[in-house]
Design goal:
219 residues, alpha+beta, SH3 type barrels, 8 strands, 17% strand
Amino acid sequence: MPTPTVEDYMLAIYSFEYEKTEVIAARLAERLDVSPPTVSATIDRMVRDGYVQVDPNHAIRLTASGSEMSEKIARRHRLIERWLADALGLEWSAIHEEADRLEHAISDVLEDRISESLGHPETCPHGNPIPGNVRTWSREGLVELSELALMQNAEIIRISELIEEELDLLEYLQSHQLVPGIMLLTRDRTPNGTVVVEIDGQIVPVDNSVSSYIWVRPT
């Protein structure tokens, strides 16, 4: 079985691949807050164990067995997030960090009981699909907030996992209601790319470095 460290790498690579972002060592080092030599050593072990491949351009990809294992880790992580939010009332912005700590410890039996007790939810509180529970959820028709036309109504559907490590940013999104299930209207777009949206009568600027991680469904 992979170590907790390798599981963290797998979840990070899985998240990058889901967002169609090329996985390279520098991105992993930044996301996991470790040094490049540490990433290189861990990736070498993961190649040895058959979880990833590294192509001639140094891009890192999950193998078939790595994908299967990563999907299980993603399921466990997102179920724990849902449990922390729904059953324990933990702050939306804090659940990712807590789930990171717990995901390595629970058994398959407890994982299934959590899912059952919550009614087998399809998504985590950030709106990302829970592998094994998806029935009707689809990313079809979703666009980045940065691509939404002016004066367009839309519903926030999900927040990319690629920014879930940034607690200050998650707290900003939560405090300004930039969370799944919220309806918004695009009011303006500034020359530097900031999208200005209206939520419940409040004007909220969303920087262009953030708006591409917020996925919405136009209505």
